[in-house]
Amino acid sequence: MTEVAIVGIGCYGFMPNTNFISFREGMFEAAVRAYNDCGIDPRKDVDSFISCEEDFWVGISICNEFTPDQLGAVLKPIVTVASESLIGLASAYMQIKTGVFDVVVVESHSKASNILSYPKILELALDPLYERHLGVHPYYLASLEAKYYMNKYGIDYSYFAKIVEKNKNNGLLNPRGNFASKINYEDIIKKEKIFDPLTIYDIANLTDGFIVLVLASKEITEKLDCKPIWIKGIGYSTESSSFLYRELPEIRSAYDAAERAYKMAKITNPRRQIDFAEVDDRFSYRELMHIEALKICKKGEAYKDLEIGSFNREGDFPVNVSGGYLACGLPLDAGGIWRVYETVLQLRGEAGQMQIKDVKNAAILSWRGINSSTYAVVVLSNEN
Amino acid sequence: MKTNINIKNRVAIIGAGMTLFRRKLKETPQEITFGAVKMALESAGLESKDIEAVVIGSAPDAFDGIHEKGEHLADGALSYLKPTKRVFVGGATGVMAAISGWWHVASGLYDLVLVVAEEKMSNARPHPQAVFLHIWDPILEKPLNPNLIWIFAMEMHRYMYKYNIKKEDIALVTVKNKRNALDHPAARDAANVTVEDVLNSEVLVWPVQRLDISSVTDGAAAIVLASEKIARKFTDSPVWIEGVGWTLDSTHWTCRELAYPLYLEYAGNMAYKIAGISNPRKQLDFAEVYDPFNYKELHHMEGLKLADKGKAPELTREGVTQRDGDLPICPSGGLLGVGNPIAAAGLMKVCELFWQLRYEAGKRQVRIKNGYALAQAWGDLMQVSTVIIAKGG
Amino acid sequence: MQKIYPAIPVLKEDEGKIIEISYKPEAKYLLSAGQAISRFLNELKNGRIIGRKCYGCNRILVPPRIYCEICFKATDEWIYIRDIGKVVTAVVSYITVDARKAEKHEVVGIIEFIDAPGQGIFHRINVNPENVINRKIFGVTVRAVWKNINERKGDINDILYFEPIEEIK
Predict the structure, then answer these.
(1) ipTM tops the 0.90 cut
(2) Where exactly are the structural domains of chain C?
(3) Average pLDDT over residues A322-348
(4) Does C88 touch chain B if contact means CB atoms closer than 8 Å?
(5) Chain C: residue whose CA lies nearest to B61
(6) Rounded to 10 degrees, what is the CA torsion of B249, B254, B257, B262?
(7) How far apart are the first and last CA of chain B?
(8) What angle do CA C149, C152, C154 make, to 5 degrees?
(9) Chains with ≥3 CB–CB distances under 8 Å to C
């Protein structure tokens, strides 16, 4: 059975507003960089393409119509997986594993700056019969969940503020740290609540960004001039999308996704066997919940490790060294493969000022947002 | 692509189900999804807990009026703590969902996968067709206020012009498919119509008339896929997926030779190569090609090399594509006869492959000689095709 | 074995008796035209059509794009082309966007630019519907008819329609 590695990465326009280019032009720029990274010609060397788009984020119905040209995929197999981008990565992984495809490209992007009515589109994702009639900003669901989490495990808001402080400061070293700042946790605690208990600092801003990744089978990685980063395990899972059918604050499908990825990667002790993680932090409290889902800490206890600095850059298990969404911005569905981009840089030793020493294995957890219960986890390694 | 295609993990279809296809169904999108899923699971003798992964196919979110539709429909697809994803390639989604299910199993990662495609077009107001205003280029095409039928009409007219094809011959496809659908219990538009009825129907966008097109429909279809080692535990007659192919052409449909679907030729070639089929015209027992409009069936037959360019109308006239002909096309009744709930229509065709190849198609049954059959779907701006080849027995 | 197909169709007598919830989505966007289309639109305001040439395949791409999808490389040069082309296909519409009967028929089609072979534009054509139905318009040379300069806004409707410049035989 062949193994699968990420051989090329490209990122372009990771900034709050890319109004100087159209989304197609942005995809082209990211694709050129990804193909250049591993020295391939998409017209000849790529067997299949996957793009991760959603109509209502792009503003065009059947948005997959507008994908092939700028990726070099004209008259080639390209499919749009309308899910979180890590699930697109999982699809590429599966395609290579069938033995029919050797090189598969995964693309996702965000042009959030083009969206004028973001909260209303998010509302459109809520259940039409039971949730939409609330008529309030969907982020109130996040505030409900945060309160559940705090009450169930006796966690004080100050820990969420510490997450914000950690990530925003981490982001200062990241060229993509659009919203990074030297903020102090005391200032965060004083800020007014907008979705109680969350302040404006606890919620990630949106950003534009275009990411393209190139995956290849083991045979091909040996022929390319690249530093392959191996996909050791990948898993994704969904529970009900509606709050009504889930037991807050449990995120069972997150734990399920992690278990699936770990089983494939043969990871039995994540805290020991993995060196760092990138997890969804679009709401500060979620970083703690996601760290727990990755089984780095017991459920409800991540805040204790946060307190002693385990998740800091210099700690024994750095989380979100990139600065996460809180510092860099949330590129909608492209978030998952953007984290892969940042992780691949680390594992290749190309993370510049952000570089953590002696890293071998990393875990990434992505989430599809407050309207969903879809999570994906991937375990990457620079060793085969 | 690899030159020697040797798929280590064979994939079989072991169950299929679909709801009634109707203009408007009482159920919600999740309930419609569940209806098809339940029937498919029962036909395979499985329970929902046996399913290891789910693939959902559904076309524009704007119809059902739900953003990130895949997340919402997952409930109806019974995907509690299961890997679930949604694929979306416009009208070609139905067959693409089946292909996506195929790569789940062929990769060796999963043994039992559920594929379901659903569409509830009746939710859209004032009329579902208005949703199609948003599929065009928003800057260069939408301001011209195009109706979806315009682009089909342009392609149809180009096809008629290039190969000198008469409307009378194209009308034969409507007659055949609607009549075939009389034997499909779930069909919406089954009827006995004549060529005159078609040629006298209301002109919408010349050359397209009302009986040239399939209708807006609600419905869902589902199939269950199994790996080789599991398939035989559940059925004596698994239907193997022998070949898959898909291709998307450039966004710029105004720069294409619309008379011939080149992208379908590529997709077909990919599927034929994987299946090891060198003479489709002879080796296929029947084909379910995508027929949202009657001329499309002819167009796609030519793209799939089942007829020479411009010659599909002749085959139709000669009765070759009838159920008792040499190469039955759309024995189910197709979209023209059964209905067109965008994504579910494509998967309905795959269900038809399953039923036909197991001799479960009732009055629709065609003769099975070699055991090979093909289902194809198409979509976007005259742009994409997905092909799946199955083998029975 | 008789298959039973689930689902309950809505019949005429049910209309008005089923519970329905109405919701109007608010999905508003401001789409970036980007480098290539912004220039194209500005030139439309000037009454001119501009394309991009790719030195790799020698095609002139209209509407212009900064990438060539065949060569997969950046395109190289801006080139003006004449607003003249041949009709590739044409149709007559009697319905509106939302499938109602239109008050007035409309002829639309694809016009392939003479100066940019293989590149077509979708637009209105000012011709007698008879000549569309009998297909005599196919292959006929047409030219763009523009709005007055002070009415042009820099969008695709700055071209009113395309009109034959040769006799239709």
Answers:
(1) yes
(2) 34-164
(3) 97
(4) yes
(5) C25
(6) 10
(7) 29
(8) 130
(9) A, B
Tokens of residue A235, six digits: 């898993």
Please count the CA atoms within 13 angstroms of the CA of B323 that sit on its side-chain side.
Answer: 20
Distance (Å, rounded) from C-alpha C144 to C-alpha C124? 10
The pLDDT value recorded for residue B219 is 95
Nearest-by-Cβ selection for B66 from A80, A83, A125: A125
Across the interface, do C65 and A24 touch by the CB < 8 Å criterion? yes
Shortest Cα distance, chain C CAs vs residue B148, angstroms:
8
Residues of A in contact with C31 (CB under 8 A): 22, 59, 114
DSSP-assigned beta bridge partners for residue B134: none
Please list, residue by residue across A160-171, b when 16 or more beta carbons sit within 10 angstroms of its beta carbon and e when fewer do: bbbbbbbbbbbb
Asked if B153 has any chain C CB less than 8 Å from its own CB, the reply is: yes
Which residues from C are below 8 Å from A111, CB to CB? 32
- Give the single-character DSSP code of A83: S
Cα–Cα distance, A204 to A324 (Å, whole number)? 9
Query: Residue B5 contacts by C-beta under 8 Å, 6 or more apart in sequence?
Result: A99, A100, B273, B274
pTM for this prediction: 0.96
Residues in chain B: 393
Determine whether the interchain pair A64/B248 forms a contact, defined as Cβ–Cβ distance below 8 Å.
yes
Tell me the per-residue pLDDT of B150-202, one tens digit each, with 9 for 90 and over. Answer: 999 999 999 999 999 999 999 999 999 999 999 999 999 999 999 999 999 99
Inform me whether the C-beta atom of residue B209 falls under 8 Å from chain C C-beta atoms.
no
A chain contacts of residue C27, beta-carbon cutoff 8 Å: 56, 59, 117, 120-121, 124
Q: Work out how many CB contacts closer than 8 A connect B with C.
A: 146
C8 touches B at CB < 8 Å: yes
Q: How far apart are CA B326 and CA B320, in angstroms?
A: 5
Q: Which domains does chain B have, with CATH numbers?
A: 11-126+215-391 (3.40.47.10)
Joined together, the tokens standing for residue B129 give 């067709």
- The Cα–Cα gap between A297 and A314 comes to 18
* Contact B5/C at CB under 8 A: no
Q: Which chains neighbour A (Cβ–Cβ under 8 Å, 3 or more pairs)? A: B, C
Q: How many CB atoms lie within 10 A of CB A82?
A: 30
- Kindly state whether B208 is in contact with chain C, defined as any CB-CB distance less than 8 angstroms: yes
**Residue B216, strand partner residues:** B340
Block means of pLDDT (10 residues each) for chain C, 169 residues, are 82 86 91 96 97 97 96 97 97 90 94 96 96 96 96 96 91
Preceding amide of A175 cis, omega within 30:
no
Q: Find residues 74-133 of chain B whose CB sits inside 8 Å of chain C.
A: 122, 126-127, 129-130, 133
Find, in chain A, the residue whose alpha carbon is nearest to that of B109. A94
| Three-state secondary structure of chain B | CCCCCCCCCCEEEEEEEECCCECCECCCHHHHHHHHHHHHHHHHCCCHHHCCEEEEECCCHHHHCCCCHHHHHCCCCCCCCECEEEECECECHHHHHHHHHHHHHHCCCCCEEEEEEEEEHHHCCCCHHHHHHHHCCCCCCHHHCCCHHHHHHHHHHHHHHHHCCCHHHHHHHHHHHHHHHHHCCCCCCCCCCCHHHHHHCCEEEECEEHHHECCECEEEEEEEEEEHHHHHHHCCCCEEEEEEEEEECCCCHHHCCCCCCHHHHHHHHHHHHHHCCCCHHHHEEEEECCCCEHHHHHHHHHHCCCCCCCCHHHHHHCCCCCCCCCCCECCCCHHHHHCECHHHHHHHHHHHHHHHHCCCCHHHCCCCCCCEEEEEEEECCCCEEEEEEEECC
d(CA A197, CA A123): 21
Rounded CA-CA distance C168/C161 in Å is 17
Question: What is the CA angle A304-A349-A169, rounded to 5?
Answer: 40
* AA identity, residue A81: V
